[in-house]
Hints:
This protein is α/β, with parallel strands linked by helices. Helix content is about 45%, strand content about 20%. The chain has 14 helices and twelve strands. The strands form four sheets. It has a four-stranded parallel β-sheet. A three-stranded mixed β-sheet has the order 1-2-9, with helices on one face. A three-stranded antiparallel β-sheet has the order 10-11-12. α6 runs parallel beside α11 and α10 runs antiparallel to α11. The longest helix is centred in the middle third of the chain and has 21 residues, at about 200-220. The chain is globular, with a radius of gyration of 19 Å.
Amino acid sequence: MKKQTVQFNTSSTTFYFDASFDLLEKIVSKDNAVIVTDDNVFCSSNHKKFKGWKTIVLKAGEEHKVQHTVDLILEQLIDFGCDRTSFLIGVGGGVVTDITGYAAGIFMRGIRFGFVPTSILAMVDASIGGKNGIDVGAYKNMVGLIRQPEFLLYDYSFLRSLPKAEWVNGFAEIIKHACIKDASMFKLLESHKLNDFQKDARLLNKLIQRNALLKSKVVVEDEFETGDRKLLNFGHTFGHAIENTYQLPHGHAVAVGMVMACMLSASYKNFNDTNRVVALIKRYGLPVHQSYKAAEVLEVMKADKKKVRDVISYVLLEKIGKAVVQPITIDEVGNIIKQLENN
Ligand SMILES: NC(=O)c1ccc[n+]([C@@H]2O[C@H](COP(=O)([O-])OP(=O)(O)OC[C@H]3O[C@@H](n4cnc5c(N)ncnc54)[C@H](O)[C@@H]3O)[C@@H](O)[C@H]2O)c1
C-alpha cells in the first residue's frame, strides 16, 4: 500500500493506492459512516466487504444520476439518524462518487466524505478533483459543487467484477490524459494492449497511480478551473453533447469527442497526429465515430457550462502531450459539426 496526501486550496485528499477495503474501518468509524454504492458493485463477489457497514444501494446507471436519487439518499440518511458528524463513503464508479460527493455537500449544509472508486474511470478521473454533481435531462453535470473528498482508497480487487466494457470505457480517460499531458504515457499505451493491464497487477497499479496523480496535479494547480484544469475537458465538449443525447457510455462519448477535437486541432493548430490518436483509441476497443444530428448536438452544446456568451473554450492539441484552450464561437463549431454530420 502507498499513502500519499495531496493538498488543495483549503483541504487535502489522502490517496491509499493498492490498499485493502479492510483499511476503511481504520480511516473512518464504522458507527458514524454510511456507504453509498450501486447494485452492480454490491454484487455477490463484493458483498462480504460491506458487512457491518450501513449501506445505501442505488440502482446502477447514469440515468439515476439525478436529483430524485439524491432525495432518496438524503431521506435514508435522516432515517439512519445521521447528523453533522456523519461520514459518507461513495463506493462505486463515477456515478456513485459524483452523487455521493454531492449528497455529502448538501446534507446538513455539508458533511465529511471519501471515496472507494471501483471502476477504472472513477479510479483515474471521476473520484479525483472534487467535482460532484448530477445531470438534468440531457445536460450532464449541470448541478453540483466543488468539494474535495478526504480520502481515496484504491482496492483493485473490486476490478474483478468490473465488466470488460467498463475497463474499455475507463481507458478513454487514460488516453485523454496521455494526449493532453503525457507523451511518454501515450507511447507506453501504444506499446501495450488492454489485456496486459488486466493481467499484470503491477503494471495496472503504476498506470492508475500515474493517472490519478496527473489529474490531481492539474487540479491542485487550478482547483476552480480558471486555467489548466480546462485541459481535462479534452474530448468532453462534443462528448458530453452526444453522451446523453444518444445514450452512449461516457468513455465512448469522450473517445468520439477526442477524434472531433483532433480534427479541429488539425485546422486550428496544425496538429498532424490525428491518425495516431485514432489508432490508439481503436487499439483499446473504443469507437472513433458516432452518427449524429448536428442540430440536436448543437442544442446541447449551447448549454455547455464551458460556454461563455457565444464562445466555447475548446481544448485542442498542438502535439501529443501538449493541449491548449482555443476559444471558438458556437457558430464556427456549428458549421464544422454540420460539415462532418454525414461523414
Ligand atoms: N467528477 C468528475 O470529475 C468526473 C470526471 C469524469 C467522469 N465523471 C462522471 O463519471 C461517470 C462515469 O463513470 P463510470 O464509467 O465509472 O460510471 P458508473 O458509475 O456508471 O460505472 C459504470 C458501470 O460499471 C459498474 N461498476 C462500477 N464498478 C464496478 C465493479 N467494481 N464491479 C462491477 N460493476 C461495477 C457500475 O454499476 C456501472 O454499471 C459519469 O457520470 C461522468 O459524468 C465525473
